[in-house]
Amino acid sequence: MEQIIGQTPQTAKTAHGAPLIQEGSHKTFMQDVLEASRSVPVLVDFWSHHCEPCKKLTPVLEKIVTAGRGRIKLVKIDIESNRSLVVQLLQMGLPLQSVPLVAAFWQGRILDLFQGNLPESQVKKFVEDLLKTTGGGVLPATERLSEAEAALTDGNPDIAAELFSSVIEEEPENTKAWGGLIRALLALNDEVAAAEALASVPAKIAQHSDITSARTALELKKESYAAAQDLKEFQSRVTANPNDFEARCDLATALNAIGKREEAADELLHIIRVDRDWKEGAARQQLLRFFEAWGHSDPATVAARRRLSALLFS
Q1: Is the CB of residue 247 less than 8 Å from the CB of residue 234?
Q2: d(CA 74, CA 41)
Q3: Tens digit of pLDDT for each residue in 219-242?
């Protein structure tokens, strides 16, 4: 599950148009929870300003619900501001003597609940089980791939890795899932796991572009780690001598290591502009490796490729 692209928890909607995450009260409980649960499972987060575990659990709930792409919603209720509602729910048997307490409503009734600040992995499991029970179930592989790719783009590589792995379990030769898994592991800075995943790719698909691209990303990650340590040195050398192309090429690798793709491309394009044949086209070859590692549709790739074409064909 991943965050919906372009939507924040405050603006995202369920499939039925209701807010994905909202503040609830005794006045809106009927509509926001009971009625809403007729069409989508509703998690109710009962919390208090004086509850430290609540402050840790609520962001986890928001993250997981936002990642659900509208298949589940979250209503947050402050028990101190809604005493009358708490009394009514206590009479229904809801154990609200202590918070945090999260209750899952479906079809107008409480389906499940948990109390206390659970680890994120357990909260995810709770939500996954809820979706299966209520018919949300497991998304088809194509949809999970889309979710995983969006999660990776949105900076949630842990979620992406889980989704890519689940696709691989069903479709062992899915190149996008393997490539995505390796990239997600690299985003988690787990090069060992990424290398193990790469080694596990079926031989039949090992030369597919999705895999070779991920392989290049892993190679660059290893190279970039060392280069990043000397970033300031490379910058000083280039400042002292703009034609120190060796330092400028190393600087590009270091900039790429810290996520500054456009700046990394700038350094290599400068070399190509001044001397495209330097070291038998080494700057162009490194730039092409960047393109492969970043992905051919990445905005940085598209922009730099356009500039490269202008240089080579001018």
Answers
A1: yes
A2: 9
A3: 888 777 666 678 889 999 999 999
What order do you get walking across the sheet with 21-23 strand by strand? Answer: 21-23, 73-78, 42-47, 101-106, 109-115
List pLDDT tens digits, range 162-214.
889 988 988 999 999 999 999 999 989 898 999 999 999 999 999 998 999 89
Residue 168 CA to residue 177 CA, distance in Å, equals: 6
Domains contained in the chain, CATH given: 21-133 (3.40.30.10), 141-222 (1.25.40.10), 230-312 (1.25.40.10)
Nearest to 235 by CA among 260, 204, 208: 260
Q: Which residues of 61-93 are buried (b: 16+ CB within 10 A; e: fewer)?
A: bbbbbbbbbbbbbbbbbbbeebeebbeebeeee
Cβ proximity of 100 and 45 under 8 Å: yes
Cβ atoms of residues 96 and 159 within 8 Å: no
The neighbouring-strand residues paired with 113 are 103
Measured distance CA(95)–CA(115) in Å, rounded? 9
| Closest to 10 in 3D by CA, of 88, 87, 104, 73 | 73
CA 309 remoteness from chain centre = 32
pTM over 0.85: no
Amino acid (1-letter code) at residue 113: L
